[in-house]
Amino acid sequence: MIRFVYCIGWIYQRFVISKGDVVNRFLLSLVIPGTPVGKQRPRSGKWGVFYTPKKTKNYEALIKMTAANKMQEQGLEILDCPVYLIIRAFYPIPESWSKKKKALAESGDILPTVRPDLDNIEKAVLDGLQGVVFKDDKQVVEVLKRKVYTSTYPRIEVTVKDWTEIIF
């Protein structure tokens, strides 16, 4: 069965494989290099003026630039429908750890319990993607997120899919 869905001015075909399964056609995968940075709290300046810390602004700008380049490269337009996100934050394995502990971290038996929190990473990613991949972060209806160690380079991998209600 083929179903056509209107989203962002384009008509996407969705192929219903079996009852309850929908294969989405829009897919965007991003890799944001560097150690993951979370959204920091607004700071108070002189005379009660609040501002966003520079580290947060710079990281959100990096996410925006990476997403804009990938969207342009793939010829995609901004989404105006519900969105599903997968966020994976990769942290470097500490050099001070033993070989055994490094092997456990690389296999996923030890997970990072370091800062920033996953919630703050999610906020930074959502704010960075807003206005580039989707119009507003209120469109995000589901997020799968995880922190892991890596022996290669630290980064955040983000996968964006447009979401449709599952057919029952």
Write the layout of secondary structure elements.
Blueprint: E1 2-7, E2 10-16, E3 22-23, E4 27-33, E5 43-44, E6 50-51, H1 54-74, E7 83-92, H2 99-107, H3 118-129, E8 140-150, E9 155-162
Parallel strand pairs: 7-8
Antiparallel strand pairs: 1-2, 2-3, 4-9, 5-6, 7-9
Tell me what you see in this structure:
The protein is built from 3 helices and 9 strands, in the order ββββββαβααββ. It is α+β, with helices and mostly antiparallel strands. It has a single domain, classed as 60s Ribosomal Protein L30, Chain: A, CATH 3.30.1330. α1 crosses α3.
Helix content range: 25-40%
Q: DSSP helix count? A: 3
Q: Tell me the CATH superfamily.
A: Holliday junction resolvase RusA
At CATH level 3, the topology is: 60s Ribosomal Protein L30, Chain: A
Q: Report the mean per-residue pLDDT as an integer.
A: 83
CATH architecture: 2-Layer Sandwich
Q: Decide which structural class fits the backbone.
A: alpha+beta
Total strands: the figure is 9
Question: What are the secondary-structure elements, in order, as H or E?
Answer: EEEEEEHEHHEE
Beta-strand content estimate: 25-35%
Order of neighbouring strands in the sheet with most strands: 4-9-7-8
Shape field = globular
Low-confidence stretches: 1-19
What is the domain tally? 1
- What's the Cα radius of gyration? 19 Å
Biggest pleated sheet: 4 strands, mixed
CATH class: Alpha Beta
